[in-house]
Structure formats: structure tokens, C-alpha cells
Amino acid sequence: MGYRHRLAAATTAIALAAALAGCSTPPRTPEDAASSSADAAAPSETESQGWNRADLSFAEEMGDHAAGSVELAVAALQVRDLPPGAEELAVQIRDEQGPQARTLAELAEEWSGEEGGSGATGTEDRDEAGGVSASSGSEDGSAGGTASDAASEADIEAMSDAAFDSELQVLKQATGADAARLFLQGMIARHQAAIALADGEAQLGTSTEALDLAGAMAASQGDQLTKMRALLESYGS
């Protein structure tokens, strides 16, 4: 599920949860997240436009990641008897990362369009749904990548989506402290990966907007990590 699809699902979930209230991939590892930003660091013509490929990669990866975190938070808010501490965190994550996910999606759309129009060579192409696919060409015009490479990437994405969907279903069936533990365990892993993504952007990015957003997300999610670990311990996990 690409970042646009995940964002759309998260936005729908927020609206549904708000109506019900009367007014709301296994996670990437920190190593995976840092590697993704590092792979996108090669300079290009886009740097003269105020952003580089590390910024584009960050916007795509973190946008998808934040939308998934919102979806997980909304699912937690819909379970029965969620303890107040976990509920407060879920509301904070939903309200904070929802707008961040939308901003990142807008940046990714803007930058991917500029990259396609600038003639800069890239390693990724946008598909119609807003996802990322293997490039069909290299700098010298020859075909890039192989069918087996594309299949491997598709398999990895499918497994990640399946694991995330499974995580959501298990959470939705849980109640009380059990649901809180599942939510906190999943969100702790997601925050660790998000902070790694933000650190990669801080090292490699050039966009002021993306760098400011990365710094804000890392600071906020670092504070939330401390709270979540304390809560998880209080629930006996």
C-alpha cells in the first residue's frame, strides 16, 4: 500500500472515528529507515530547486509511515476500555501525525513532479496510484533493474502490508490493558523507525521545510517514546 493509499485510509479512519464519537507493515526497523534515506542522497539538478532526493525519499517514506501510525492510533481509540494513558497518547499521535502525513504527501507529490520534469535521472518512477516502482531506465538510457529485483521489492511491500493489516486486526479484537499493550508495542517500534528516518533527513536533506518537519517529528516522538515505555511497563509488559 503506497503512501497515498495509506494516507487516504488514515484520513477516512479519522473521520469515521469522529462520527462514532459524536464530534477519531511490520514497522520499518531503524536500520531500514536510515538506509532508505542514505540511498537517496546522490546529488542531482533538483538541489538547485531547494531540495534533493534525500528530501523526496524522506517525504515519501515518512508520509507513509506517519499515515500508518495514525491508522494504528485510530484503531486503538475504537477498542473497548482502553486505559486513559494509552488513550491520551493515541489522541496525541492521531492529531499530530495526521497533518504531518498530509504535508509530507503534498511535498512528495510536488517534488516527484519537479523531478520528472527537470530531466534529472532517478532510480524510481511514480505509478498512477502514487506508489514507487523500479526505474525503467538508467543514466545512459539502458534498461535498469531486473524482473527479479522488481519482484523482490513487490514481495517485500506485500509482506509489510499484510503484517500491518494483521497487526490492526489483532488490536481491534483486543480490549482494555491487552489492547493498550499491543498498541504501545507497535507504536514504540514505529516511533523508533520514524526517528531513524528523521535522523537520516537531518544528515542528508537540503529542504528547509523537510528538515524542520523532521526535527519536530523526532523531538515529539522521542518524548512520546519515553511515555510509552513507562506506560507499557505499568501494564506489566
UniProtKB/TrEMBL annotation:
* Gene3D superfamilies with a match to the protein in the record: 1.20.1260.10
Disordered: annotated segments: 24-59, 108-152
InterPro entries assigned to the protein according to its UniProt record, in alphabetical order: DUF305_CopM-like, Ferritin-like
Q: Does the keyword Magnesium apply?
A: no
Key word Ligase present: no
Q: Where is the composition biased (Low complexity)?
A: 32-48, 130-151
What's the superkingdom here?
Bacteria
Keywords attached to this Swiss-Prot or TrEMBL record, sorted alphabetically, are: Signal
First and last residue of the signal peptide? 1-21
Chain ranges of the DUF305 domain: 55-232
The protein here is known as DUF305 domain-containing protein
Per the UniProt entry, what species is this protein from, by scientific name? Clavibacter nebraskensis NCPPB 2581
